[in-house]
Amino acid sequence: MFGKIIRNIAIAGLLASSVLASPAAAFERTDKGNVIVFGGRQAIPVLDPHVRYDWSTRMIQQAVYDALLKYEGDPAELKPWLAEKWETSADGKTWTFHLAKTAKFHNGDPVTAEAVRYSFERGLKLNKGVAWMLKDFLAPEGISVVDDYTVKFDLKAPYAPFLSFLPWWYIVNPAEVKAHEVDGDYGQKWLTDHAAGSGPFKLGRWEPNVLYEVESVQNYWKGWPQGDKNRPAGVIFKIIREPAAQKAALQRGEADIVEGLTPDDYVQIKRVPGVVIEDHKGMTTFGIKFNTQKGPTADINLRKAIAYALDYDALIQVYNGAATLETSPLPDAMKGHVAVPGMPRKDLAKAKEYLAKSGYAKGGITLPYVHVAGLEEARRIGLVLLDSLKPLNINVEIKPEQWPNMVANGSKVETSPAMTSVYTTPVSTDPDAVAYQYHKASWGQYYAMMFYDNPKVSEMIDKARGSTNWDERAKLYADIQTQIVADQPEVFGMLQNRRWARRDYLQGFKFSPVRFTGEVDLYPLWVKAE
Amino acid sequence: MLTFAFRKLLTLVGTMIGIAALTFLITNVAPGDPARLVAGPNATEDMVATIRTEYGLDKSLPEQFIVYMGDLMRGDLGQSIVTTRPVMEEVLRYAPATLELVFVAMALGIVVGVPLGMLSAVYKDGPLDHVTRIFSISGVALPAFWFGIILQLMFAVDLGWLPVSGRLPLVTRPPETVTGLLLVDSLISGRFQTFWTSLQHIILPAVVLSFPCLASILRVNRAEMIEVLQSDYIVAARAHGIASFRIVALYALKNAMLPTLAMIGLRFGWMLGSTVLVETVFDWPGIGLYAVSSALSSDFKPVIGVTLMIGFFFIVANTLVDLAYAWIDPRLRSA
Amino acid sequence: MTTPITSPSTPPAAAITMIDQTELSRPLTFRERHASQIRQWRLYAHMFRKSFSSMLGLTLVVLFLLLAAFGPLLAPYPEAASGAIDMSNKLMPPTGANWFGTDEMGADIFSRVIMGARTSLWIGLIITGIGALVGVPLGIIAGYGGGWLRAIIMRITELFLAVPGLALALAIVAALGPGITNCVLALALVWWPGYVRLVEAKTLSVKEELFVESARSIGARTPWILWHHILPNCLSPIIVKMSMDMGMAILSAASLGFIGLGAQPPAPEWGAMISVARTYMPDWWWYSLFPGAAIFLTVLGFNLLGDGLRDILDPRSRDR
Amino acid sequence: MTGPLLDIRDYRLDIGTFDGPVHVLKGINLTVNRGDTLGIVGESGSGKTVLVRSVLGIGPKNSRVVEGGITFDGQDITRLSEKDWTKIRGIRISMIFQDPMTYLNPLFTVGRQISDVIAAHEKAAGQGVSPKAARRARTEELLDQVGLPNPSMLFGQYPHQLSGGMRQRVLIAMALAGKPDLLIADEPTTALDVTVQAQVLDLINSLVEKLNLTVVMISHDIGAIATVAKRCAVMYRGEIVEQGLTADILSRPQHEYTRRLLAAVPDIDAAAAKIPAEPVAPEPAGPGALLEAIDLRKIYRSQSGAEVAAVKGISLSVRTGEIFGVVGESGSGKSTLARMLLRLIEPTSGDIIFDGRNISGLAGEPLRQMRRHMQFVFQNPHSALNGRHTIGDAIGEPLRIQTGMSRRDIEARAEALLDIVQLPKMFKYRYPHELSGGQKQRVCIARAIALNPRLLILDEPTSALDISVQAQVLDFLQQLRAELNLTYVFISHNLAVIRQICDRTIVMKRGEIVEQGETERLFLSPQQDYTRTLIESGRKTSRAANLADHAG
Lengths: 530, 335, 320, 552
Hints:
The structure holds four protein chains of four kinds. Chain B is mainly alpha-helical. Chain B contains 14 helices and no strands. Chain B has helices at 2-28, 34-39, 45-54, 61-73, 87-122, 127-141, 144-158, 182-188, 192-229, 232-239, 244-282, 287-296, 300-328, 330-334. In chain B, helix 1 runs antiparallel to helix 4, helix 5 (87-122) crosses helix 9 (192-229) and helix 7 crosses helix 11 (244-282). The longest helix of chain B is centred in the C-terminal third of the chain and has 39 residues, at 244-282. The radius of gyration of chain B is 24 Å and the shape is globular. In chain C, helix 4 crosses helix 5 and helix 11 (270-277) packs antiparallel against helix 12 (285-313). Chains in contact: A-B, A-C, B-C, B-D, C-D.
């Protein structure tokens, strides 16, 4: 073997002298066609659709699996997908879905009602990942197969947002999963880095922490919007952790689209020929949550003082203008959103007025501001806050925390810090997704770190989620929004824009705000070759 | 010899257990709930509990410790809570990349460091000596992460001579795995283009990693050479008319190699530790990067696993150094 | 190629005999009584001055200490270190007003780099201080005491040494959570074994010296021997190591800061600054360049100084 | 073939130091003709080593030839380039070094080292390097020539596998390998035991005769010089104070220094003119003895578990007021014995009785108290003093440890002690490295007597010192004993010294007593072969015997 190695080294040396560093290719080509390279910072540890989700994971899940419905467009709309049509009973408890008969899993099996039933049962029984969305309203026994292509869901109680969660419940092929089951694990071990889906792509190379490749399915049952001719051979999701490296990769054409550049980078790279910035209004809200039950921030006047002292313009500047201030606890793109009049904006006189009314008229206190370690923008906003509160003689201690520790501390009134910066992305377009954060039943969750307690609001939220009448709900949500703003359980921050930088030859990019930060629908993408 | 080997093995096992216990205790003293991270942002309390039970995190710390040590005896490093996979499997997958990087860096360090050390010892207090001195101390003082970024910008972004990061170009499929070292595997399968590109990829990280190591090898070698060149037997060799070159390159070097070898062993461990920085900068998919990303998500089993693995490589390297010592020094051979 | 004649151990006998002849009954002046020490220090100074690199090291360290001591007076915008922002002025290249440019919050990088010296000084002092305070006594006890005590101390030491310090520190900070205190704590925790090993080895050789036996023969107790004989003779390598370690500790803390586990902004710590600044490469090169250069020069200074000290105090010791 | 082989003319050499240049060699004039054997005698610091190394072009680094020069075989070699040196060094001039351990490279076999020299010689001679086998044969021939047994086995051995004497022979073989015109021997016997010294000197003599060598040998040991050299030069402080035929110089020294030097050499054949201690009345051993050892044993356990006995059941009895000698070659266990007597090393078994009290079981405070009465003077004064303490601290240390004296009193006492050992008071501010060897040994003695002990154990107190200093220290020790009423246990490998001062003596070999008795009787009528060999060897290197040879 060594002889062979040595001989080969010699040959390689010869080759090396003739081959210089190959110039960066415009985009990757293989013998099967063009491959799109997505440069992202976040790895995909577990692909199993019922176990884990975050933006990178869900982007690939979305590519290899199909769900009953799919969100598309801006503003996001629910589109039929595996389910061609559906109906609901008058009491809002029973939902029946009719499946597309052409849908096929990658191994050729048809997507049947049983597969849907099994997938939902699996998600509920594993009690991980997406389970929280439905488990309070749907039991595994409530799902029944009517015929091969009809499936029925019986909810425990009417639940208006039900439909809005379905796009995140992907359908797996029960035959394949069962074949790989170990010790009754519902095939969890196998699905970690394998897939049993029916989506437009199937898995290619899987090199954890390095890259994940999906290959397009030739005869995808739903067809290809860009036309079969333009269909890319596949997509490589390449882990590039450093923004500088991402930028370099994009400039050299090693990546066709990247996410996660710094706000300043986007401004800079916009000027590079051949690079296009996708800049869209998002749904991720940013708030500085007060602990309303304990410590100085239990004092509403102090909370108001802080809210009026904050330099809101600086929040926008942190994003180089790619953000808009919140006008309500609900994001603008959400159904039922109303612009609440009298949202606090910087007004030092008013801030001092409130401070004088509070128990800390002279300031002289130090409040912690906790953010997730590594989240740059949250840290910068901390600096803005620090700067803004100086006139009130309030000192801010900026404390980064690991996410698990932050969540653990934030689950109890006693340990929850006075101020915590929290980004929340609603997973559905239904207002309940955000409103419920202000329900007392949410206490203990990271987004409920303010321990907001207003029985009237809780009551209205309960009423709204049980109602099937949209007009009634819309009115309730308007009241809820106004009341929350009045109570100031948090500083309502801004909605940051979603941004990507891509090469101009990358076509078909479709934005939808309901997706997570960084997440892209890979299905319609294609490369326009000269 | 057999008792020697047996004793070494015993020490190795003992040290491994010690390291495992140490890192387990260290990483478990603080609060922190990785189960929450894994369960996802919207998970309810009972969903988090499901995960805790699954990973045995609901048990008391002493219980967890006993379970962990018991598993360790069977060669099981536990399960990563983030990737859900056995840590042993993952560590073994990432280890070759790290080893390849460390080997290349070490080779660079030795090939450059030893002759430079020799030269500056021979021309002690000359201009070359002064230059290498500043150079070598700079090597130790350079922050690897910063240096890596600067090199990346210069050679990859600005000049475009070398790739920015990673081990291989995106579409290049890695050669069939034999050793896990791409440079070797590509040669075995005769894929010269792959060999060449993977060589291009490894240059920058290897240079960054090897720089401090090169510097200290150089310094030790220089110091030793100076001492050896002053020693009586070298004076004698000179007095007996042996040619200067032969004295330096053969007689003195062999004697000076002993402490240099010790330094190489030491630096090997140091390099393994520094991969956490270099691999982060260069997106090099090795155990260092694995450790950092696990540490950042409070996933401690992989951190312990990597620490153990690094300790293991380090001990093995030092054992090899001991053997090399005995090979070079006849006084140790007979003892 | 024989032993250099300039070594301090061979002063000309003439220097001494001359004073002997003038032995008087009058009380001796300070200079006379301490002629030996004065000569020794002059010799040290002479050797040190001769070496360009040692002087460079000394200069850098003195500069660093000055910055640490008078940072707030020297920095043009000292408030930049405590998180003052000026968003309208962010990411400005170096100008007359901002010599090193400004960062992403509009803070003056020059001021932050200067103020960072103090942070780094504390980090270095605390880590090496704790390392030496814990390691030196343990090393002396292990080296001199022998037996099971030595076995236990050395086993634990080897255990720590079997894992590269950075990897272990990473694990510790990851568990404790990021922050400058935890980072210093973690590094101190992995730093002491180096001293144990150094001092133990040195003690083992010093204790074989005749003067130790001699002290025993006149009935000296063990603590006496440790304090008066062993420790003073271990001091040179300890001083050299501490000087080198100041640099290395600063570097390690910066490394953890870079990974995101060390000091956290707005604390003006150089590693943490680079950690943020790296995302601003290459277009805003000044942001990472200057903190990086500050780390480099500081660590270089301490290393050159330590190297120079080694040459005059402990010329035969091995590079570690 | 006319003219001298080596001619040194008005040679002056300076070495630059921190305090300015030091004149190491001052106007040296020496001539060596072919077939000459020249001895250069001098004490440490006399410049003899610098001189011969200059002849070989391996002198000290910072040196500068101020005046004069060296001519070798008609060629001026004062300032040769390194390249030209390679044609001379090791080829035409070769050297035998003093310490056989440090002058052999520990990592290469003996054969390899010698055959490399052969190869170098052949290359320099321009005749092309002969094949390995031929060089091996020549190496083995050389090994045989220097009297080493089984050369073919020796060829593959490493230096550490040989004894000191064998290594010295290997060094000689190496020096001969280049068939040199001039052979320089630098203290070739200093590091060896007495019996081995004699053998090596015999070998050199026989080689000189057989190979008709031209030899320059330097040594501090005038006896060794007398054995080998026909002509002799005496060096003192960088100058040659006297040169001529060895016999003449030995019998009729002209220079004052030479006379002093010769007088200082202890004579093995001279009955001692001892300064009597108070009552010399010989007491019987047993009760009344100051120190007794009964069946002392020390067994070391090596790493492999094997037991090595350093001292095998020794009993002895030291009377009050006498000087009790212990003589033996290296490895005889005498140092271990000495340390056991003071409980610096724990005996494996046996009892030590001091002044009627069994001290072998003492520990802690009582043992510390004991130490007031028994003190130790170590062989090597250079390392027996802590380099970081001033002399004053060193002398005051016992007082600080054992007494509650005030600082001021201790200072005064230290000054008084310096007075007793005849050193200036100023020295209390000095550091050990600033003192000469003899001065340091006096400090060690002062330290030892600080607590007014009754017994001093002196472990080779003079072997690290120059001969002239040795004589002074020995004299001083005897005076001191008389003044302070001390009892000595005196350990030495030098029989002449033993004979000069000891009342009774034991001879040790491999941890056992071979012979014991009154010193004079031991020397006049030794009962054991080993004792006889020791005395014979000692005599060989002694002045008187050679003086007789040369004179006759």
